[in-house]
């Protein structure tokens, strides 16, 4: 079972830097990637990277 602290830490990591990858956050917090992905999904967030594009 997950702890509430893990959920909060994962969400905080993505609030601070939305460009973080699931793999990076999982390695930093020492939790499985699937756990990070599940936490994002449960909170209505989507795992994607922002991509800078040039303005046309």
TrEMBL record:
GO terms for biological process: regulation of DNA-templated transcription. GO terms for molecular function: DNA binding. InterPro entries: Tscrpt_reg_IclR_N (IPR005471). Residues 9-41 form the HTH iclR-type domain. Gene3D superfamilies: Homeodomain-like (1.10.10.60). This is HTH iclR-type domain-containing protein. It comes from Camponotus floridanus (Florida carpenter ant).
């Amino acid at each position: 079972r997950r702890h509430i602290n893990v959920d909060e830490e994962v969400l905080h990591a993505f609030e601070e830097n939305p460009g973080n990858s699931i793999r990076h956050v999982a390695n930093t917090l020492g939790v499985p990637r699937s756990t990070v992905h599940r936490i994002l999904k449960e909170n209505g967030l989507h795992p994607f990277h922002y991509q800078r594009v040039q303005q046309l």
